[in-house]
Design a protein that fits this description.
alpha/beta, D-Maltodextrin-Binding Protein, domain 2, about 45% helix, globular, disordered N terminus
C-alpha cells in the first residue's frame, strides 16, 4: 500500500533535483565566462633577463600592478612572461597557445601575421622614437658610410631590424654592405665595450656615461624612420572573453594617460630604471618629443599608414615572404570604448599620414 506513495515521492524528488540542476547550469556557464588566468607576453626583459622592463606603458602597468588590481575581485590571476628573445620569442609563445595578450614591435607582429598567427591589434604604445648607431669610444667612424664592410650588429627579427633597413635605404645602403650580425641588447652593449663590433643599433647613453661608446649616427624623431609598437590579443581569447578584453584595454589606457602626463616623467623614469637600464638613458631617449606624442595609444591615420609602409618594407627587405592584409586585423572598438569611458577623447593628438598633428595639442 505504501509503495505507490513512495514511488510518487521519489518521482517528486527527481523532478525537484532536475529543476535545481537546470537552474544551476546557467550559473555554471556564467562562471566559465571568465578565464582563471590572463597570460601576457612581453617582448623583452630587463638587464640580465630580469622579469621587469621599462620604456613602455605596458611596463609601467606591470610595475604598478594595474591589471592585478583590476582583476583581483574576480580571482583572475595575471601571468607575465618576459622574453629576452623579444618579438620572435613572443611569436613562438603565441604559436604554442601560451599567450593571450602581448606587445610587439612592428616587424615581429608583421612576421607573425604573415605566417598565420591570429591576433587583433588593440592599441599602439610607442612612436617617434629616435634611432642610433653606436660604436666603440675610439671608433674613427663618423657616418654610416664609414662602417661599410665592417661588423654591424642589430637584433634580427625585431623592430630594430626594420628600422635599420629604413635608415640604410635612405642612404642607399643595405645590410649586405656590412658584416651584419644579430645580437640582443645586453650582448650588443658588451660587444661595443669590448670592441667586438664596429657599430650597433642601440641607444648610446649608458655606454657614453661609462666612457666606452660614442654615437656614430642618429635619426632624431623622424616620422619616416620611426618604429611603432602594438598591444594585441589573440583571436581565440577575444572570441571567448570580449568583456575581459575591454577591461584589459581600459585599464591599460588609464595607465597610458598617467604615463603621458608630463608631471609624471620623473616618477616613470624611476620605475623604468628598475629594469637595469639607467634613469639617465630614459631621460635622454625620451627628451625629444612630448610624452603625449611618444606614448600615444591611438590607431590614427599615421599609425595605419605607417603599419602599411612597414608591411611593404618588410617584403621589400625580404623579411617576410607573403603580404599582410590589414582587413580584420585592427580592433579599434576597445580603444574607442576606453577613451569614452575614461573621458580621454582628444587627450592624445591625432596625426596624419605624414606624421603631423591634425590639431594643436591640448
Amino acid at each position: 500500500m505504501t509503495f505507490p506513495r513512495f514511488r510518487r515521492f521519489a518521482a517528486l524528488l527527481s523532478l525537484l533535483a532536475a529543476g535545481t540542476l537546470a537552474l544551476a547550469l546557467p550559473a555554471i556557464a556564467l562562471a566559465q565566462d571568465k578565464p582563471r588566468v590572463i597570460r601576457i607576453s612581453y617582448s623583452g626583459a630587463g638587464t640580465g633577463g630580469r622579469p621587469l622592463t621599462g620604456g613602455t606603458i605596458i611596463s609601467t602597468a606591470h610595475q604598478q600592478g594595474a591589471l592585478e588590481k583590476e582583476f583581483a575581485k574576480d580571482g583572475i590571476k595575471i601571468q607575465w612572461t618576459f622574453n629576452p628573445g623579444a618579438g620572435p620569442a613572443t611569436n613562438e609563445q603565441l604559436a604554442n597557445g601560451l599567450a593571450d595578450f602581448a606587445h610587439h614591435g612592428d616587424l615581429p607582429i608583421i612576421i607573425g601575421r604573415s605566417t598565420g598567427l591570429r591576433t587583433r591589434i588593440l592599441f599602439s604604445y610607442t612612436r617617434f622614437g629616435s634611432s642610433y648607431i653606436t660604436g666603440p669610444i675610439d671608433s674613427p667612424a663618423k657616418s654610416l658610410e664609414d662602417l661599410k664592410g665592417k661588423r654591424l650588429a642589430v637584433f634580427k627579427g625585431t623592430a630594430s631590424q626594420l628600422a635599420l633597413g629604413r635608415i640604410l635605404k635612405k642612404h642607399g645602403l643595405t645590410e649586405r654592405d656590412f658584416k651584419t650580425v644579430s645580437m640582443d641588447g645586453d650582448t650588443l652593449r658588451a660587444a661595443i665595450a669590448t670592441k667586438d663590433v664596429d657599430g650597433g643599433f642601440i641607444a648610446p647613453f649608458d655606454l657614453q656615461a661609462r666612457g666606452v661608446g660614442k654615437v656614430i649616427y642618429e635619426t632624431g624623431p623622424d616620422p619616416e624612420l620611426t618604429s611603432q609598437g602594438v598591444f594585441w590579443v589573440s583571436e581565440e581569447f577575444e572570441r571567448k572573453y570580449p568583456d575581459i578584453v575591454q577591461r584589459v584595454v581600459t585599464t591599460l589606457i588609464r595607465v597610458a594617460a598617467w604615463s603621458s602626463d608630463e608631471k609624471n616623467r620623473d616618477a616613470q623614469y624611476k620605475l623604468w630604471a628598475n629594469s637595469g637600464t639607467s634613469y639617465y638613458e630614459y631621460q635622454k631617449t625620451y627628451a625629444d618629443v612630448p610624452l603625449k606624442w611618444r606614448l600615444s595609444p591611438l590607431l590614427d591615420e599615421y599609425f595605419v599608414d605607417n603599419l602599411k609602409k612597414s608591411i611593404q618594407q618588410a617584403r621589400e627587405f625580404k623579411l617576410i615572404r607573403r603580404d599582410v592584409d590589414l582587413n580584420g586585423w585592427l580592433a579599434p572598438q576597445y580603444l574607442n570604448t576606453a577613451l569614452k569611458e575614461l573621458k580621454l577623447e582628444g587627450y592624445w593628438p591625432e596625426f596624419n599620414a605624414a606624421g603631423k598633428p591634425k590639431l594643436a595639442q591640448k
